[in-house]
Design brief:
18-stranded mixed beta sheet; 4 helices
């Protein structure tokens, strides 16, 4: 089976072109095997690039633990790059079907290859039960929470998948690696949750570290960065347009006041292609 390794700002996945070959059986186990950084290819998960009846292509995503997720902001940028660069659909505007609907995408082309991608991430979901979280509030903004003795203020947003944003002075390893998994698996979040620890540099700039549901800490999270943009506005900490610094690179975010849509712009990079002996 042929695969391609790609990353968006360091958020790396293994991609399989299901236009050129059949959809693999037992994709959840394949995701666990391929994603292993010692015994596999290594990555934050597996993404299948599939034909779609409603869009130019369909993205089906599995985390490194084999669980299927609705959406990945960095992943969809790489899907769009693959679709264009590999001749599946060579237009500078694409539509990609995901687990949370069809998203519209604009491509920046340099030397006949995609360099950056702007994704219309759609409208944020702010009603607690729809995120889902049992924390009271509509929206859930800076709500005092205690988990395993750790006291913090939670702001919750769904961008098709659930996020808990925690504003901190210093996003330390103790917080991200120690508290992140406890928040992820808390009973406050029935479908588990992605956890963003955010340092506010200014009203237009933040630093973000993410403990990602099903994958652990990742070097970037596009849906998380989009959720942080929304959370910053709701909490009165940032403007509607921000530059978000992640471990693997920068993303530009804008929460449009007229449409209520969040727009994310960032890089997409192809690393290598190989054959997986299944």
């Amino acid at each position: 089976m042929q695969f391609t390794k790609m990353h968006g700002a360091g958020n790396d996945y293994v991609y399989i072109d299901c236009f050129a070959q059949s959809v693999p059986e037992n994709a959840a186990q394949l995701a666990r095997d391929m994603s292993h950084r010692r015994f596999g290819i290594g990555g934050d998960g597996l993404i299948l690039i599939r034909p779609s009846e409603t869009a130019d292509a369909r993205m089906q995503m599995f985390n490194a633990d084999g669980s299927e997720a609705e959406m990945c902001g960095n992943g969809i940028r790489c899907v769009a790059k693959y679709v264009y660069d590999h001749g599946i659909c060579q237009r500078d505007h694409l539509s990609i079907e995901t687990g949370c609907g069809v998203l519209e995408i604009d491509l920046e082309i340099e030397n006949e290859k995609v360099s950056r991608v702007r994704v219309d991430m759609g409208e944020p979901i702010l009603n607690g039960p729809d995120i889902p979280t049992v924390i009271a509030g509509n929206p859930v903004v800076l709500e005092p929470i205690t988990i395993d003795g750790f006291e913090f203020e939670a702001t919750c947003v769904s961008m098709g998948n659930p996020h808990c944003i925690i504003f901190v002075d210093d996003a330390t390893d103790d917080l991200v690696l120690g508290i992140g998994p406890r928040v992820e698996t808390s009973d406050l979040f029935p479908a588990k949750v992605n956890v963003e620890f955010v340092e506010v540099v200014s009203t237009g700039e933040v630093n973000q570290r993410t403990w990602e549901r099903g994958s652990g800490e990742t070097w970037a999270c596009g849906t998380g960065a989009s959720a942080v943009c929304v959370a910053g506005v709701l909490a009165g900490k940032t403007d509607r347009t921000i530059l978000n610094h992640l471990l693997g690179g920068d993303l530009e975010l804008h929460w449009d006041e007229q449409t209520n849509h969040v727009f994310m712009t960032g890089p997409a990079t192809e690393v290598f292609t190989g054959m997986w002996e299944s």
